[in-house]
Amino acid sequence: MASKDWRKSVVYQIYPKSFNDTTGSGEGDIRGIIDKLDYFTTLGVDYLWLTPVYESPMNDNGYDISNYYEVNPQFGTKADLEELLEKAHARGLKIMMDIVINHTSTEHHWFVESRKSRDNEYRDYYIWKDGTYDTPPTNWESKFGGNAWAYDEDTNQYYLRLFDITQADLNWENEDMRRDIYEMINYWIDFGVDGFRFDVVNLISKGEFKNSEGPGKEFYTDGPKVHEYINELNRNTFGDKDIMTVGEMSSTTIEHCLKYTNPERNELNSVFNFHHLKVDYPGGEKWSLANFDFLELKKILMEWQVAMDEGGGWNAIFWCNHDQPRVVSRFGNDETEENRLLSGKMLAIALHGLKGTPYIYQGEEIGMTNPGFNRIDQYRDVESLNAYSILREEGMDASLILDILATKSRDNSRTPVQWDDSRNAGFTEGMPWIEVSDKYGEINVARALEDGDSIFYTYQKLIELRHELDVLTYGSVKPHLMKDDDLFVYERLYEGERITVMANFRNKEVPYPENINAEGEVLLSNYADRKNVLRPFEAMMIYGQNN
Ligand code: GLC
């Protein structure tokens, strides 16, 4: 019997290091997730995605894997992971693992071997090229700053590292390497996991190694053999199994994402793209202070929604993850408690009516905000610390950099989950690895659960609707009022059913839109009644007929 359609699922993302600590180490662990399983059943999600828990020196918090087969002792043991799977499955919850196959840690034994000599059997598992002592093979930039090549004195060559210097890019041209990767993925399938999130998987196929006018992305993004490799990965691992997959796609295009997710091509189920989360990067510059461009946000979201729908592709839909600042501080308003609650619910309703698989990042469901760090020693993230030193070297004022980090740093989403108003927000008995936001007295899970009107219950209701209503899963997407400066409005249409979503992104009253079919039953709203205007951050989801 076919299992429930995966397209109806909602995924909850866990960043284990900041989730729940049961040992007092100051870092979250797998047992901490087991302890909270009832919380997920209350929320109603279907899958839990765990960011990497494998052995790792943790220079990039686990995205630098040194052993794909072992659990990092800081998170617990394999027995803990087994127990998590068992107890999750008993509750009908599925577990999705994060797989990083674009690179490994330089501490992975393949790399340790590879760097020993030019004729080592693992040499070719990575990308080694000649340069001269002070001129790397190409001028490509690392995503974490600096040149993308690291010089290795012993063998007098450079290895490619698109991310940190301790994250060496794997050479997908090498068949043995690919075979080893498939074997590893099959190990986790046999272990009993239910899905995979593939980290920056559209970067695995490198094209030509040439200098670029820019950072070099055109040479390795959606590269020449990427579809071939992903198809091969699919056929050798999860392809014929009940495994949900999502690929993280860096700087990708709709055209490629239609290919990645077209079921007939046997690649992946769904994709994350990030174009809608760059609407506050003026001129493409992340390290800047800027308000978000609302018209651009709508344009990008809707372009992807319509094109993926019409082309038979499938999006992951999300505002937040461990690499993004908190959405309520970013596209909402956290200046007052009232605005935080209204805009947190508005953002949830605006997103969860879209077509695709919704992802909720830990703490989003209670409206966690950016913590407002204002000293560099509060930061832990390698990307943020690199950015700080590079911008300082370029002469930027330290206080301006701190203001920028406070809105853009990945650490904004990595502060511990605020469970209650006890010490350290109930996250740990020890010393948290990164500071707990000082807003935890007001914003915490215990409080959200007690208050029937909290953001949590908006998410809970949205998940319930996603499970119940086919129109939310299969309905086509019809955007409206694309030029309107304040409102985000769209319809979903399916076999005579209609959902209308209306969201006011502004902290002001705006006229009720004309010529929008908003007849029907209000399924969900963040105000108790309806008026002939849309109040600050007012949002609603309406169910009616399509005629
Ligand atoms: C992805 C991850 C990010 C990580 C990077 C390198 O973008 O989400 O956290 O730093 O890949 O693995």
Automatic annotation (TrEMBL):
EC numbers, comma separated: 3.2.1.93
GO-annotated molecular function: alpha,alpha-phosphotrehalase activity; alpha-amylase activity
Glycosyl hydrolase family 13 catalytic domain span: 13-414
Top-level taxon of the source organism: Bacteria
GO cellular component annotations of the record: cytoplasm
Coiled coil residues, start to end: none
InterPro entries with a match to the protein in the record: GH, GH13_cat_dom, Glyco_hydro_b, O16G_dom_2, Trehalose_TreC
Catalytic EC class: hydrolase
GO biological process per UniProt: trehalose catabolic process
Keyword terms: Glycosidase, Hydrolase
Protein family (similarity comment): Belongs to the glycosyl hydrolase 13 family.
Name of the protein in question: Alpha,alpha-phosphotrehalase
Species for this entry: Salinicoccus roseus
Gene that encodes the chain: treC
